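Q: How would the structure tokens look for this protein?
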Amino acid sequence: MEQFTYLGLLLGCLVVTAPLELLLRVRVYARWRRLLLAVLPEFSVFVVWVLYAIAQGHWNYSATRTLDVRLPGGIPVEEVLFFLVVPLCSVLALEAVRKVTGWDAGYPAAPDDSRGSIAARNERGADRGAESGSGMEADR
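A: Here is the predicted structure in token form.
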């Protein structure tokens, strides 16, 4: 069973963050293009980095704690999955925080946010504030 250690860790990450998509409806999977834009650059850089590190002998992976299935370059399949799963879980967590707190994280709420969501209410409130602010400046 030790060979499932790394895979079990990745599965645990997915299980813990799955409720964020299901219960909070953060729509990370529905906006798959946006997710790919967030994950693919990181994925590419780190896979190349790991392949370089393996080739240089900087590190290796336990055959007893992995499935010992190696992809070209000697990278374990679990390591490739790690570079997909962890960023996915991070994006899910970020979007959950945005949904619950209304924080825009530097970009506005998606137009598909429901009118009742905190992010949508905050965006409407910011629009009203800008309108009233511009009206006051015109009165001066």
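The radius of gyration is 21 Å.

Residues 2-101 form one domain.

Upvote if useful.
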